[in-house]
Amino acid sequence: MHLYVHVPFCARRCSYCDFAIAVRKRVPARAYVDAVLKEWAERRRDGGAEGDLDTLYLGGGTPSLLDPVELTRLIEGLTRDSALVPGAEVTIEVNPDDVSAERARAWRAAGITRASLGVQSFDPAVLTWMHRTHRAEQVAPAVATLREAGIADLSLDLIFALPAELSRDWSRDLETALALEPDHLSLYGLTVEEHTPLARWVERREVRRTDDDRYAEEFLVADRRLGAAGYEHYEVSNYARPGHRARHNSAYWRRATYVGLGPSAHSGSGRGRSWNVRDWAEYERLVKEGKSPVAGNEALDDEALRLEELYLGLRTADGVPVERVPALVREQWVREGWATVWAHDSSPPDPLSTYVERGGELDRRSPLHERGEGTGVRIDTSDPSPPSPLSTVVERGSGSRLRLTAEGWLRLDALVGGSV
């Protein structure tokens, strides 16, 4: 089982943020931990949270604002009856300005194995515009302090596709992040969400939305630069060194069972989904009164389940079985450079042998081919009627998979929508 705990408290709301947070000068840590542990006990009593924990993720909001004593009590309470499996991944989201030697040691002693730092940018002007609470010069010392405390598995978050008015140097931010040698990087394109300061700035025309070309350019710059540095682009927004994929988030993408605790947290198992009330005060009141904080639920029908599996599979470098996408559609994706075929079998028959012999081309620049993970396929469009390498793969039963390229990921929603 995978457990997510939403810690809603923040010292300030970022300009782009529409998450379920509660801005507090003083965090009610004891009341919060009491409420979450009570919800957890109710879930376990009702049979909705069985099994040991493979991953535990403290997200937010700003979990690093919790008093270390209360955070330790939270983790101990969550793992008292549902033990962490050997080698479990326990992640905490951290703001750089919350890191101190004392806190880092306490986090490690509590069982934290991984930290995700909300860096967003190394440009001081950009951080001010974002309403971030930390300064750029605090990031490197925070990384060093976490490592000294024994939390060596580190991830950095960055945001790209910022408004052109900010004159942000995206390449410089990438280089600065790489110099810190993190094991993992999460890169998110800026979106304008309703009811945020950013949305109001756009409405008043104080800033302009980033156009699609700039978004694509920065996405592809990161793909090339991080790939050259040895990071695997294993999901649309995520890069990892070998062996350092985020196990908790990966569980979502393969539709594993997960339980969410705290305000706005979601849970999912099989076809079922549920979510808690969004507001912290309402959540606390309901739990105190012995009532369920669940605000809603849904059950996926066959079509919704099929679409979700396709969408989540195509988000990742593992892709989907080639037969999940209609032949004519997948062949177009390959022809346009939006997808490649990955032969999962360690020693499959070469799916391109027939095609290559007849004058086709194997694109040796394919990211998969360069990393030795599979066979990269692109159709030479100079051949007016090439045989289908994908059809050959399916007919030979090699268990091959279709995965999107970086160019394909830029079109993910449109490609999935066009394949159903």
Residue ranges: pLDDT <50 for 5 or more in a row? 346-397
Total helices: the number is 17
For the sheet with most strands, the description reads: 9 strands, mixed
- Mean of the pLDDT scores? 86
Task: Report the span from N to C terminus.
Answer: 31 Å
Strand order of the largest sheet: 9-10-8-7-6-5-4-1-11
Write down how many β-strands occur, each being a DSSP E stretch of 2 or more residues. Answer: 17
Q: Given the C-alpha coordinates, what overall shape results?
A: globular
How big a fraction of the residues is strand?
15-25%
Q: How large, in whole angstroms, is the Cα Rg? A: 23 Å
The portion of residues assigned to helices is 25-40%
The SS-based structural class is alpha/beta
Describe the structure.
By secondary structure, the protein is an alpha/beta fold. It contains 17 helices and 17 strands.
Fold topology:
Blueprint: E1 2-7, E2 9-10, E3 22-23, H1 29-45, E4 53-60, H2 68-78, E5 84-94, H3 101-109, E6 114-120, H4 124-130, H5 139-148, E7 153-160, H6 170-179, E8 184-189, H7 197-203, H8 212-228, E9 232-235, E10 238-240, H9 247-253, E11 258-261, E12 266-269, E13 272-276, H10 280-288, E14 294-299, H11 302-315, E15 320-321, H12 327-336, E16 339-342, H13 353-357, H14 367-370, H15 389-396, E17 401-404, H16 406-409, H17 412-419
Parallel strand pairs: 1-4, 1-11, 2-3, 4-5, 5-6, 6-7, 7-8
Antiparallel strand pairs: 8-10, 9-10, 12-13, 13-14, 15-17, 16-17
Provide a quick synopsis of the model:
By secondary structure, this protein is of the alpha/beta class. The chain is built from 17 helices and 17 strands.
